[in-house]
Each structure stands twice: as structure tokens, then as C-alpha cells.
Hints:
By secondary structure, the chain is mostly helical.
Amino acid sequence: VAYNNMAETSVAVPVSISSEPDGGLSSPAPANRREFRGGFSSSICDIFRDPSRRTDCCSIACCGVLSSDRNRYLLFGELPPPLWRRLLMYLIIPALFIASLNYFAVEVKIPANGSSYGNNDQQGDNGDTTTIKVAPLPLRLAFYAYLIFLGIRGRIEKRKTRTEIMKKLYRERAEARGEAVVDPNQVTRYIHQHRLDVIRAHSSYSCCYAHDLPLDDNNEFEDAVEEDSCSRFWDCLSKTFWNACCGMWCQCCSACAIAQEEREIERLTGNFEPKMDYITFEPFSEYFPAIQHLNETQTRSFVQHAKAISKLSVKLLKNLAAVLAILVLFALSDIDKNFTFANMIVLLLTLCQAFFLEYLIWWRWNRFDISFDSVIKFFACGFLLTTPMAMIFELIVSIVTGLISMVAMIFILVEDSELLDKLQTDPKHAMKDLAVGYPALFIFSLFLNAFVIAALCEEMIKYFGYWMVVTPDLLPQKRSNDANNGNGENTPNTKSVRSTGSGITVAMCSVALGFACCENLLYVFGYTPSQSLGVEIQTLIARSIFPVHPLCAAIQSIGVCKRDLEGQRGVGIGRIISPAILLHGSFDFVLMVAAYLQQVQKIKEGNDDDSDIPKEDDSDAVMSEEDIPTLVFSFGMVLVGYIYYVWQSRAQTKRFIAMDRTAAVDESSTLV
């Protein structure tokens, strides 16, 4: 993600912030506002409690960097540091440390039992030794110290922001009580009394914070919020584990505290409605009128659409060009034998596959429903933000599902003592016997991998990837000339419901295409069994013929349009992502079970060559002739999913046309 590359001393004037010394807090606080720890109007535990809030997602993406930058901009008027500085501090210097640790590492012999490596002459019980590489102690200590420095530096900045918010909240309450002048010493004492709360909210490498309850436990002031399945699950998790079991509120990377601060800053500054981009903080009003003009005049020139983009999109495209140029030079330099110019061609083909689908979905069929600027942002969000989040959440969920499978295996081993003894003496062959003798255990584990780890996590992350990006294309629009002249207040919305629905579909598919593109790169260059060019091409082809991710995103868009455009209040995140989870999980489950059955057959025939039992990743391996039935069945499932989407989409389009006709009749009657 590109950041605004401006001078360090440049300061922009925040939107909707008063120039008064106290930040514009001249009006008294509402008398019915609930007060939580630190004087906040919402609890630190309220993240994801309101399904309509988009900014909560940004407090998790990139460890809360996006929300932290926006908070400091609205509060202090500070622009984020330039991209080169962040790359230097958080990527280049750690990479140099890691390279130095590997370069200066020395080989040390240790006993095979791993008891100690302090004495090179010490051997195991049978005289066997093994060799490991150990980096010099001063270099390791320097690396650890640098990591600690980065953590402390980040926490200081976050605590500074929280302290300033608490000061403003104290002044707000004092003015509400009728105090004309607030004593600075009283503010200092108040912050000193709550310093432990500030430390807990932004603790370095810690996940604990005391559960936040309102200071005035009066339900009269509690706002009624419509909940969905995600908010209900979050509330249940907080009330059972975090509150009842350990009495603490757990968070990672201060995500909950950052979300709380963002909610409070929006209230203090009046920035409730989205008015500007993240990162560059460019107001929508500076670039969106040009986009509206292209749509109103039906301009078909791609060059004109490419010119009407925001600063953020320009920076994203420039960074993409710079990264590709660096990779081309790296491939031509022949530094790494595993990444040649031929591999670079495969990388470009992987990108072109996603860009070609994007061309069909947006430019060929829906170019006037959503702008090129929005397509860039949604695609970048899927590529840069949703993929790392999906990997993290899949890792966490896989640990939980792994424990469930382990408990089931323990019950089996208790009943089968012979298999338990063999597991201690020959684990590899014991696992083969377990796979052949207990297929239900492995199929159950594959079911969890397909539907819970892969489908549930990825579909939910893709939904939140769409939800966290706010673009002016999908907001209520007025005519560009009326909006520029300030006369658009009573002007009817110029964008039809049908066009808005198509824009939502393109936006969600763009996020999915960015996610799928990054995932394809990982499988082609990271998860393939060998680094040969032929295997990389076969992997790319195998993953390109099944566009499951954009198809599932299109199915999700049906539910989003029902909720946001048709006003069906019963449609929540559960109903939105359930059909996509069913399709995605079934597709992965069939491939995983087919790979498992083939491996079991090889074990029975003795042709397995001591290979391991296939895991989750084996469903994405390159297919052979034996996989043709599975390939045909998988293609049939994708076809069924496509037919389902077309059926639902056509029915929804008819409803949109009826809604547009009703709106046109109402507009005509109003003019008359």
C-alpha cells in the first residue's frame, strides 16, 4: 500500500476539525451519552458489534496501520510517513538482519538427541551427531533489540493518540458541567490516574485488557443495534470466554483499542460519513466530479477513464509498475537460479489472468456502473489486505480444528493398542495404517479443512475486504454540476438501483480477483512441489480454469444487494456468505477427498513411495490423468454455482427495474 510521499514537515488541515485550541469541542456533551473506561462513549469491546460500521475492519488490516494513520490525521493533522521510510524500517532493515544472520552463521555439531550444543565433542547415546547453523550472539541480540525498538516506538505513538483523545473527552465533560475554564493541572492528574488504562489498551506484545463495562450501568442510554451472525458470535465469544472464563478482554495489535479510538474521533470531529480516501486522505470531492462527468456523458475512451482516478489509485499503479520493474531486473540479473526471466513470464501471465477477468467483468459489461478508480482500490484491497488476513485467520482456525482431529485420533489410539505401539516405533507407516483403517477420521478432518478453514475464513475475509473499502461510486450521487455548485441537496439521485447493484457485484468480484491473484502467485511459486517451469505453468492453468473466488463473490453480492438496496432487514452476513461457503467448501472437499482416496489406493498397492498422506494443500496440486473424473465433477459444481448466480441475478434485476420505475414515477409526481 502506497503512502503519501510528502515532506516530513508538511501538515494538512483535517476535514471538519475546528481551528480552536481545544479541537472545536465548544458544545456540551449529550446528557444521555454513556461513559466507559477512560471517558469513551463506546466500549473497547464494541468492535464488530455494529454490522453497519465499516471502519472496524480497517483496525485489523495491516495491524491497524490504516486506522491509526487516519486517527492521527483527524486528531493532529499529521500525514503518514512516506512509503520509503516504512519500507526501510519494517522491511529492508529486518531483511538485512535476517540475511546477515544466515551469512555469518557457523555450523555447530550437537548430539542427535539434541541435549546440548555447547560442547562440540559431546555425542548422543549411539554416537550420532547432527549439525545446525547458529548465528553470532551479538548479531542476534541486535536483531531482537531492533524488533523491541519498533514495538516500543509504535506503542508510544498509539498511546499518545489515546491520551490526547482522553484529554479532549475530559474537557468536553467539563464544559458540559458549565466550567468555562478547564484547569490544565486537573487534566494532567486525570490522565495520570488513567495511565494504566492507556498502557493496557496499547501494550507491547500483549493481548490482555480489563473487560470494559459502562461506568453508569443504565440500559436507558444503550443504543439499539441490529445484530447479524458475526456480531452475535462476537458477543457470545466475549461474554463466555473473555468475560466469564478469564475476566479479561483479549486483543491483538491493539485492534480493539484502535477501533474504539476511531469511533470516538469520528464523534469528536463530526466525520461520521466517509468523505476521503485512506492513506492519501484526498477528499472525494476533488476527483469524483470527473468520474461522474464520464458516466453522465457515456465516455467510452479508456484513456479518459484512466485519467479520472484519485491520488491513491495513482500511487497503487506506480508501486505496481515499480515492483514489476524490480522483478524484471532481478530475473535478468540471474542472481537466483530459481527465478529466471521465464519464471517472470509466468508471473506476468498470472497477473494477466486476473486482469483479463477484470476486463470482462468491469470494462466489457459494467464500465459505467463503477469507476476504474474503484476497481483499482477493490482489487488492491483483495491482493494486499485480504490475503494476509486470510492466512492469519486460517492458521488460527487450523490450530483449533487440528486439536479437534487430535482428540478424535486419541480415542482411536486408546482402542487400538497395536497402532499406538507402531506409532511410537514407526510413525510414518503407522499414519498410513491409520489412513487405510480409519477413513472416517481423515474425511472428517478434510471436511473441517474444506468448509471451516478454507471456505468459511476466505469467504468471510473477502466480504470484509469489500466492506472496508468505501468509494464514492457506491454512495448516493447527485448530478456533477449541481454538486459542484452546491445545489444538489434537493436533486434526485442520478444513479439507478440497477446500476448500483451492478457496481456492488463488480466491486466484490474485484476484491475476489485480487485475492485469487495473490493466492495463485503463492501456489505457483511457493507451494508447487518443484521449481520447474512446466510445473508452474500447469499449476497456473489448473487454478485458472476454475474461477471459484470471483464466482463466490458474485453470489455474495446477491445478498449484499438484498440488504443494502432492497432493504431486506433479515439478510445479514450469515445469509450473505452461506451460499458461497457451500459452493467453495464443496469444491475443495471433493478435490481433497479424491486426493485422499487416490493416496489410500497407492498405499494398498504399495506404490506410494513412502510419501505422506495428502494434506489440505494437496487439493491444489497439479492434476494427472487419474484426476479426470474429479476434474469433470468439479467443473460441474462450478457450472451449478454459475447457474444459481444467473438465476438469482436475473430475478434481482427485475426487482431493481421495478424499483427504478417506481422512483421515476415518484420523481415525476414530485416535479408536477
